[in-house]
Amino acid sequence: MSSLKLLLLVLFPTFTATQQLPSDPGVAGPPLEIVHLYNDQWPTGITVSQDGRKFSNYPPGLDANNTNDGSNGKYTVAELIGSDSETPYPNAEINSPPGGAINYTTYPPTGANHQTHLIGVQSVVLDPLDRLWILDTGRALTPDGVLVPASYGGPKLVCVSLSTNSVVRTIVFPPTVAYPDSYLNDVRFDLRGGGGVAYITDSSSEGRNGIIVVDLGSGESWRHLDGTPEVRPERGFVAFVWGTPLYYIPSPGQPLTTAPLGADGIALSADGQHLFWGSVGGRTLYSIPTERLRDRSQNSELLAQASIVNRGQRGVSDGFETDSNGFIYAGNLEQSAISFYNPKNASTSMFVRDPRINWSDTLSVGSDGYLYFTNNQLSLGSAFFPGTDRRQRPFVLFRAKLPENGSRVSLLDGL
Ligand SMILES: *[C@@H]1O[C@H](CO)[C@@H](O)[C@H](O)[C@H]1NC(C)=O
Ligand SMILES: *[C@@H]1O[C@H](CO)[C@@H](O)[C@H](O)[C@H]1NC(C)=O
Ligand SMILES: *[C@@H]1O[C@H](CO)[C@@H](O)[C@H](O)[C@H]1NC(C)=O
Ligand SMILES: *[C@@H]1O[C@H](CO)[C@@H](O)[C@H](O)[C@H]1NC(C)=O
Ligand SMILES: *[C@@H]1O[C@H](CO)[C@@H](O)[C@H](O)[C@H]1NC(C)=O
Predict the structure, then answer these.
(1) What residue stretch is flagged as signal peptide (predicted)?
(2) Total domain count for the chain?
């Protein structure tokens, strides 16, 4: 080596072109398949029927562009047609409340009170009998981005028969169960024993978090775990999605805060004995024996609080889902992934990871052995970045094959 070359190497050390540094592969688990592209309204929920029909919802409580004003044709529930179009479900009329989703005759404006029309739907879920349940928060954003409180008649569960495509049942929540500033987020069904039971998370960004229980036989509903730390967001919690820290603006003109989103994702264990949930503003997975939630006796709330189980860390997630292996799936948004918790070994593992995942919102196991999930870029919308909208259409419905022949669970008598 010449002395000049040696001098250069000492002054400017270089690495050989063949040197390989370890790097994040970004991908793990089964391949993602694209099922549907959403080019129009912004979706959250997805549910897939036994024969493969697919339904989504488009919450006006999270995107003002989803708010129906009585004449703009916006829908809050749709059936997916083909691979890239959607049609209002069960029909356009129910999706278009007379006068719109917001009642501007009150001051300040409030959610419209129509029991016969959809105001602001945050979730659509098929029950074990393949009936479509529509969870209406009764709330919507004004064009200025103000989330109006609900009025009695808005917050409700609406049941639609897939064979007749018509409403067969409406359960309206009293204001003592769905508060005006509640945000009914997601729902799961156990149809064993009598009429069955529904469990709902209240993710309210105003702090009214809790779990709502509905007796589907009588239509009665009640709350448990109201305001307990496990259903609340963690104070000061900051998620990092796609490398970006997520702060939050509660409404226009207000100062930044950390994500104030409480109990959101929800799933029943495969045997229906435990209900799992987690806050968006936190990484912990919690569960409670479902009998503690159904109990309405004098000591039932004390017993419920005393029976919450901390199942460890799951990551940051929105939707949850269950399969026949007993696995509890949950988004792992900071890892561009979906993880699952196995109750048999009390640990969380990676299911699928892909750089295209930039907010896995709602998960739904199909009878075909696939996990379907919407990817909707929620954290790039105006709630986290006020005055800006960094979302890029299309939003995507993906699916991935479940491990160990996993499939849909049906909590139904006689199975
Ligand atoms: C709202 O909808 C209009 C018309 O569909 C569209 O041009 C616009 O980009 C949408 N805005 C947002 C923020 O999604
Ligand atoms: C709007 O609010 C007024 C005053 O509370 C009420 O009388 C009316 O029924 C409401 N209409 C709708 C559609 O919510
Ligand atoms: C727990 O079980 C799952 C599913 O069988 C497995 O993939 C995972 O590695 C297990 N975790 C631990 C820590 O043993
Ligand atoms: C998020 O991922 C989807 C694919 O799933 C992609 O179409 C979209 O462009 C991504 N969003 C951004 C802001 O890059
Ligand atoms: C999955 O199903 C296939 C076909 O029925 C079977 O051969 C295989 O053993 C099953 N695998 C597991 C892990 O159960």
Answers:
(1) 1-18
(2) 1
